[in-house]
């Protein structure tokens, strides 16, 4: 199970599952194998604290992929910019997403997508993981949905996620949920 005992209702892995499903939810087990490695690469090419250069993204990812990501990530406030999205930088939640995605392999990230059975999905406007399940008006405490977030708490969740990942063999092809 991926539930984590602690202050947050879900583990960071789960919050990534929800973010990916909300922003890129139409891969159906096929698209993710293309989208996730490219998105991971996009974030790798975007410095943590300064603007990316669109020329680099175009060269490394192909112009169409680069600009599709720029459009989608600007729409979800993962990146922001001054006068032109040709040179944009990561928002706070974008920096968290970058740290999380770069802490895992593309295969590990793909395994976190497309979880529907026995999994309570949360959305920016509908949280199902509160103490009493769904509660009208409650915001999911997802560090990839919320721009304002306790960074110490995020860093602690990230370390926990990396430790769990280190214990599980990375060549495991069905790490999403145990079958119990
Ligand atoms: Zn939630």
Name the bound molecules. Answer: zinc ion
**What is the CA-atom radius of gyration, in angstroms?**
16 Å
- In N-to-C order, the SSE pattern is HHHHEEHHH
Query: Which structural class best describes the helix and strand composition?
Result: mainly alpha
Give the terminus-to-terminus CA distance: 9 Å
Shape: globular
Strand content: under 5%
Low-confidence stretches: 1-7, 172-180
Q: In order across it, which strands form the biggest sheet?
A: 1-2
Mean pLDDT: 90
Tally of DSSP helical segments: 7
Describe what you observe in this structure.
The protein has 180 residues and is mainly alpha-helical. The protein has one domain. Helices cover 45% and strands 3% of the residues. It contains seven helices and two strands. The chain has helices at 12-23, 32-45, 54-61, 63-75, 92-102, 106-111, 151-167; strands at 79-81, 88-90. It has a two-stranded antiparallel ribbon. Helix 3 (54-61) crosses helix 4 (63-75). It is globular and about 50 Å long. It starts with 11 loop residues before the first helix and ends in a 13-residue tail after the last helix. Mean pLDDT is 90; it is low at 1-7 and 172-180. The structure holds zinc ion.
